[in-house]
Amino acid sequence: MISPKLKTLILASFVTLMAGALISFPQESFDASIRGLEMWWEVVFPSLLPFFIVSEMLIGFGVVNFIGVLLEPIMRPLFRVPGVGGFVWAMGMASGFPAGAKLTARLRQEKQLTAIEAERLVSFTNSSNPLFIFGAVAVGFFHNPKIGIVLALAHYFGNICVGLLMRFHGAPKQNKGERSSEKNSKLSFKNAFYALHHTRLNDKRPLGKLLGDAVMSSIQTLLMIGGFIILFSVLNRLLTLVHITDILGYFISFLLSVLSLPSELSVPLISGLFEITLGSQMTSETTNVDLAHKVVITSFILAFCGFSVQAQVASILSETDIRFKPFFIARIFHGFFASCFAYILWEPFYVHFQSNESVSKAVPVMNFIEKSSTNLLQLWNAMAKIGPLITLLALLVYVLLLTRKIVKNE
């Protein structure tokens, strides 16, 4: 354990060095800040806002409780979490980081999860969404939609493995608050509807108040996410400028050589440990490296999700009694699981479709994948065009609601 005085010294030194680097490289810091802001302004905010608002509404109206009762016979035996975990898992995959953490924290505040159940749930419900994997990474960076299917399968299979592994998390004495799976093993629409109706009646807020609270809570979370994206975009750039990334790259290159991976991927991997978008892009642009090795490293970067996303999750979880450590350990496991799956799935899902012997069988499947990836890329580009308008309108609504709330309190 690090002593409190040493920890204080380390943190103070790090912040001081970062401030010095900001002063030494003002233009580069500004450019990196703009890059992070553009990512948040154009894509992250408009893509996550609808999911966050709808999720808050679903929780308020009791729909999540309804889904939880129905999915209890599935989620409890597999992952040792309540049925509401199925809703969090689905929303996390559809909307991407850090929706799973946001919803898990919200359900913990609603007392629908114990602390241990929440730690299990948050460990496997945070993932990259298909829009980012296919649209940005596969087509945007690698210019190859076929890679998207390998990355997606490896990513989500790895997530399932993490969920199955984390079901063993928690000492027996910490599991006292869990409900018995045997008592909830029967599918009952009647009980599910009763849970929905009971939840709606207990929430005394009118529709307008519920919607306003959902918008306020969602935008506050997204503002926090934007701050972390900009901060880590600048930090990643500063580490490169002061050659810390190169120094760390020497150690990572040794580890990669042990795993029979090219050392040229060490710097992209370091960048990906901090920010997944930049790391994935740098990995795809690395020359003289086999494509399969690039996919394995990219799969690890997507699963680890970068310190930027992990800092967002840590900030969200800090509002509850959910510990961050299990989530961090799960990300390491997810990275290794996803990398192994990418290596295993590379030949059957990429090389096989590329071979001349299977052209007749692969064409329909590949046409579907390429068409889907193209549509996702078009959606990604459309987000970049209309995203700022959505963000601006949402922030305007937030200011109006906040002003109204302040006036009422006075």
Write up what this structure looks like.
The chain is mainly α and 410 residues long. The protein has one domain. The chain contains 17 helices and no strands. The chain starts with a helix and ends with a helix.
Gist?
The protein is mostly helical. The protein has 17 helices and no strands.
Q: What is the general shape?
A: globular
Task: Provide the β-strand percentage band.
Answer: under 5%
Helix-strand sequence = HHHHHHHHHHHHHHHHH
Q: Unreliable stretches, pLDDT < 50, 5 or more residues?
A: 180-184
Mind summarizing the main beta sheet?
none
User: How many domains make up the 3D coordinates?
Assistant: 1
Distance between the termini: 48 Å
Number of helices: 17
- Count of individual beta strands: 0
- Backbone CA Rg: 22 Å
User: How much helicity do the residues have?
Assistant: over 70%
pLDDT averaged residue by residue: 84
Keywords: Membrane, Transmembrane, Transmembrane helix
Pfam families: Gate
Transmembrane segments: 48-71, 78-101, 121-142, 149-168, 214-235, 247-271, 291-316, 328-346, 382-402
Protein name: Sporulation integral membrane protein YlbJ
